[in-house]
Design goal:
Butyryl-CoA Dehydrogenase, subunit A, domain 3; 5-stranded antiparallel β-sheet; 4 helices; elongated
Length: about 220
């Protein structure tokens, strides 16, 4: 495959992956409150990296910014850092990809310099993709751990209520809906981050393959 095709393909994928990574970082729906068994259906609660929001069926949205570094877990701060690093590297890689395109003849840059710049952009795409996938995976692991803990707590609360009410109301007297710890599930931002990270990885690999082809074309000259 021609190096120019690989380079252009890697640039296109890197551009799309960067856009997805930026969108995922800015989205507020990283986790969504699980409404299964919830009697209150008029409020939708969801969380992001920077805000916690609630939206009613009437369309009213209220968000609470998450400022500062204190008061948040180390894992949450790590997710923020990974996504920011991924966004910065993917943005710089996109700029370098534009400059190093062989189809651009406006600059008098040598092909070897363009090849090295293309490789640098590819490496940045790969690292950014890893950061995006790792950040989304760490956040997803937090959701799974919190969900399991909440389910266990709710089960114990329901069991204790049923046991305490057994002697007063008979069997099944305490089987009503009990107020428990809220649980959260995966939000769409997680999937956007995973897809964006994967696209960046593929784009970075294509840019690296383009570098090898561009350097081979330079040797005979």
């Amino acid at each position: 495959m021609a190096p120019s095709i690989l380079q252009n393909g890697g640039f296109a994928l890197g551009l799309v992956g960067s856009a997805l990574l930026i969108a995922a970082t800015a989205m507020n729906r990283w986790s969504v409150k699980d409404r299964q068994g919830d009697l209150l259906t008029s409020v939708y609660t969801y969380r992001g990296l920077w805000q916690d929001c609630e939206t009613t069926t009437a369309g009213m949205t209220e968000c609470r910014p998450l400022y500062g570094l204190l008061g948040f877990s180390d894992s949450f701060q790590a997710v923020r850092a990974l996504m920011i690093v991924g966004v910065v590297l993917s943005t710089i890689g996109t700029v370098l990809s534009v400059i190093s395109l062989q189809c651009l003849t406006m600059n008098k840059m040598e092909d070897s310099s363009k090849a090295k710049m293309s490789l640098t952009a590819g490496i940045m795409f790969i690292i950014a993709g890893i950061c995006g996938i790792a950040g989304a995976s760490v956040y997803a692991n937090q959701i799974v751990s919190s969900f399991q803990s909440s389910v266990t707590t709710n089960y114990n609360n329901n069991y204790n209520n049923n046991y305490n009410n057994f002697g007063q109301e008979g069997f099944g007297g305490g089987m009503g809906m009990a107020a428990g710890v809220p649980t959260y599930t995966f939000g769409p931002a997680l999937f956007v981050a995973w897809i964006g990270g994967g696209v960046l990885l593929i784009g970075g690999v294509l840019k690296s393959l383009a570098f090898r082809g561009m350097m081979k074309d330079e040797k005979p000259r």
